[in-house]
Design a protein that fits this description.
CATH architecture of the largest domain: 3-Layer(aba) Sandwich
Distance between the termini: 25 Å
Number of strands: 12
Oligomer: single chain
Shape: globular
Order of helices and strands: HHEEEHEHEHHEHEEHEHEEHEHHHH
CATH topology of the largest domain: Rossmann fold
Strand content: 15-25%
Strand order of the largest sheet: 9-8-7-6-10-11-12
């Protein structure tokens, strides 16, 4: 049985609510699986964290300083891997929590990576393209000692994209004196990116939804789906599920949502969004709020927006049979247990949204080999790896009666713990 040593320690800077909520997950599964106390202690905190000041000359000519972060949770299985986000709520605690989740995610998918995360606290929507470029390049120069194709490979995250990755790759390459495409993933195909990367996370969510329907033996020919968050992940998942015969009855974005119990015409909706910029007022659907959307009756609910959307105050209103977590941490621990007890199958975030890091791994490998795959080959490899991980999690859930989240953690942490045990503690 894993028991945390009773030594009194000062509170660490990363220990905010987000981090402690994530830490509770490893504490729970460590107790259940009888994890060695020394290994448990080592996995509860990030390996290293860097906080940097990022001075940027704004378009007005004024220099403004931003705060940037890069955290490595663990690098036992390989170089660190994780996204970079631009958002006003970025903090050391949030980044540390997300780095920890990336560790479990990579181990669960059996990828040779450890977990990392980074970000800059800013209002990206208020920045011009030039200001974003200067912010990105200066941030890269401040964390350059941490990153590299054999040390830490950043990727896009909230309010960053392939252009951001291109700037990071260029800044790093200029500093080392030669082109290094594999320093980042999620970059444009023309400079070493992988086909299929942009759709990978949403495609993985769709694969998991299909596997969950099979596992739960849902008795319907066209399962109904509600999607909170119709950005890159949610829209891709909707498109693929719609093509597979699922009925998408409601979707939402930051402005609000729409609902039609008979189903939405997804190709028409995507065309409407490209013109109007939001889903509201789509013809043939009723407008709903994001809060109302979560309580709509459906077979599958996919929260693909921000974290902590399903919690103690609204968990009793959730009205689905399967919940597939497209976002990171959308369900609180209390809600996770409550919904499980209610009989709802939850496909946890470290499984459901692992398509992005899996195809990032493909991109990294292709870059190192200088040999690139077709999009069809990328998608087939992704489906194979996602399918294998789903089967392992669902089989363990059926065998042990654990919540799927705990099954996923047990598999991932078990692999990492074995690697740490074999490598030992130096010195």
């Amino acid at each position: 049985m894993s028991v945390i040593a009773s030594v009194k320690r000062p509170t660490m800077e990363c220990e905010n609510e987000h981090f402690l909520m994530t830490q509770r997950q490893i504490d729970e599964i460590a107790f259940e699986m009888g994890l060695d106390p020394e290994l448990h202690e080592r996995l509860r905190y990030p390996k290293r964290a860097l906080i940097v000041t990022v001075p940027v000359r704004m378009d007005s000519g004024v220099v403004t300083s931003f705060t940037g972060y890069r955290v490595h949770h663990d690098v036992t299985l390989g170089p660190a891997k994780g996204g970079i986000r631009f958002h006003p709520e970025v903090s050391l605690g949030e980044v540390s929590a997300l780095a920890m989740l990336m560790t479990w995610k990579c181990a669960l998918m059996n990828l040779p990576y450890g977990g990392a995360k980074g970000g800059i606290r800013c209002h990206p929507w208020d920045l011009s393209l030039g200001e974003k470029e200067r912010l990105t390049r200066r941030y890269t120069s401040e964390i350059i000692n941490l990153i590299g194709p054999d040390k830490d490979i950043p990727a896009p995250d909230m309010y960053t994209n392939e252009q951001t990755m291109a700037w990071i790759m260029d800044t790093y390459s200029i500093n080392v004196g030669h082109s290094v495409p594999s320093v980042v993933t999620g970059k444009p195909v023309s400079i070493g990116g992988s086909l299929g990367r942009n759709e990978a996370t949403g495609r993985g969510v769709a694969y998991c939804a299909q596997r969950a329907v099979e596992f739960s033996e849902l008795k319907t020919a066209s399962p109904t789906v509600v999607i909170q968050g119709f950005g890159n992940v949610g829209s891709v998942a909707a498109k693929i599920l719609h093509e597979k015969g699922f009925t998408i009855v409601a979707v939402s974005d930051v402005y609000g949502g729409i609902y039609n119990p008979k189903g939405l015409d997804i190709p028409r909706l995507l065309a409407y969004i490209s013109e109007m910029g939001k889903v509201e007022n789509f013809a043939g659907a009723n407008n709903v709020t994001n809060a109302e959307l979560l309580s709509l009756p459906c077979d599958i609910l996919i929260p693909a927006a921000l974290g902590n959307q399903i919690h103690s105050e609204n968990m009793d209103k959730i009205n689905c049979k399967i919940l597939v977590e497209g976002a990171n941490g959308p369900t609180s621990p209390e809600a996770d247990q409550y919904l499980h007890d209610k009989g709802i199958l939850i496909v946890p975030d470290i499984l459901a949204n692992a398509g992005g890091v899996t195809v990032s791994y493909f991109e990294w490998v292709q870059g190192l080999m200088h040999l690139f795959w077709s999009e069809d080959e990328v998608n087939k490899r992704l489906e194979q790896i996602m399918g294998r991980a789903c089967d392992q999690v669902f089989d363990l859930t059926k065998k042990t009666k654990l919540r799927p989240r705990m099954s996923a953690l047990r598999i991932g942490i078990g692999r990492l713990a074995e690697a740490k045990r074999l490598r030992g503690l130096y010195p």
